[in-house]
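Q: I have 256 residues here and want to know how they pack in 3D. Can you give me a structure?
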Amino acid sequence: MWVGSAVAVVVIAALVAANLRATDRPSTSAADVNKIVDRKVGDAVKALQAQPPASVTVYDAIRGPLVVVRSERPRGTGPGTASGLGSGVIVNAQGDILTSLHVVADAATLKVTFSDGTESPASVKSTDPDHDIAVLTPAKLPEVVVPAVLGGGARIGEETFAVGHPLGLLGSLSAGVISGLNRSFPLSNGKTLQGMIQFDAAVNPGNSGGPLLNRKGQVIGIVTGLANPAGDDDFIGIGFAVPIGTAGGAAGAPQK
């Protein structure tokens, strides 16, 4: 009994001593907490500042799938042919290219150039005249086929980016916002396209058939045309694109 009592006393004394040592530790002050928070916030801000702008990420994502589309078609009057230049984007692992139908319509020959410089004749695989969309099949693929990532769900006010070859300036990027949805857009052949995306990123002749992208680098539309109330082809601040959920169906892509 005496031994047990002695052991109990020793244990209790040890616990009391441990508790005293614990309570002797200095508590963290409000100033210390603020310093820790400031340091963590500063580290987070530096990490964000080190990230590239969204436009850089978008361009890096689409540079591989972007295609130059060149056409040769008979002249309306006189001998010879007329050359045309537009844009396109690879949409699957088979190398199918999505572009605008008016870029390739009535073309005698088509040639595509990939981002690595590979050139190839191309043929029209399928068309969707109601949405001004065509799918091209190249005779020769680049060594590495890089299809674009398809997105969807565009919302008014979201950042958007158009990438293509305006006025022959290959691989150009412009930025803006989605400024309207479900717009109508008349074509020169008398057709009117419905359900279009309206945007204010600058586009000009040569952008047709190229991708419209969100800030994630996903293709959300295929650029079709621009508003030209004066009857010319100069950009006045309004462009239109076929939603990728509609355009991609011509190439067998799932609905978005």
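Q: Anything worth noting?
A: Confidence is low (pLDDT under 50) at residues 1-18. The chain has five helices and twelve strands.
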